[in-house]
Please model this.
Amino acid sequence: MPGVKSLAAQQYYAHPQNAFWKAMGDIFDADVSDYAARCNLIRAHDLALWDVLKYCEREGSLDAAIRQDSMIVNDFAAFFKKHKNIAKVCLNGGTAARVFQKHVLPQLPAPFAARLTVLPLPSTSPAHAGMRYADKLKIWRSILKATDE
Model:
């Protein structure tokens, strides 16, 4: 679920300390100086960017503060039905991965879920300070460059 700054800006990863866009720029050697360039990068590499959660209640921006009983996941079954060529889902952080595994995968048609590769990646959030940016980038690059080829 987007943080407070992202919701206010109506832009993915709007918090200036979140390393998502820096990583995308580094991985694809692309301009990420403004939001239009960031969106162009996503489209140019045939990526999709979507939140696991459509709605939740929490104080602040930390995933740990999400009230479990308030979570509503996005309709991935409909999304994947419309976008049949998606074969890989990369999840930014542990919470996104756990929610996707628990609440999304069981809702997907079995044949599709079986062929879908789901990859949890280290969070780009500034709250995930236990891993250096260079280490996160190495993992993200290995996954996303493989997607781009």
